[in-house]
Write a structure and sequence with these properties.
single chain, 92 residues, alpha+beta, three-stranded antiparallel beta sheet, 3 helices
């Protein structure tokens, strides 16, 4: 999946090759907080390391921050925190 950002509009190119436009209204503060919460829930980040990791996220540009937010969501999902019903015909 390719992600490109321009003036608040995210162009996502999924695996099927089609380009789809999405507009997201995110604040850096909310994206940072959600990323950290996802990583804590997934068991990747300790609460004692939150202040240090906030500084790391502050050094990221907007596109990097969105990518980290998506990756943290995937980690949270992989840890079993987000329930996805099993579908035998679905391909992962």
């Amino acid at each position: 999946m390719a992600i490109k950002s321009k003036k608040g509009i995210i162009v996502v190119q999924p695996g099927n090759g089609k380009k789809e436009r999405m507009q997201l209204n995110l604040t850096r503060e909310r994206a940072t907080a959600q990323t950290i919460e996802n990583l804590i829930t997934a068991g990747v980040l300790l609460r004692s390391e939150v202040a240090r990791y906030e500084k790391v996220l502050d050094s990221c540009d907007n596109t990097q921050l969105v990518r980290l937010l998506l990756a943290s969501h995937e980690l949270r999902e992989a840890s079993g925190e987000i329930y996805r019903p099993y579908r035998p015909d679905a391909r992962d």
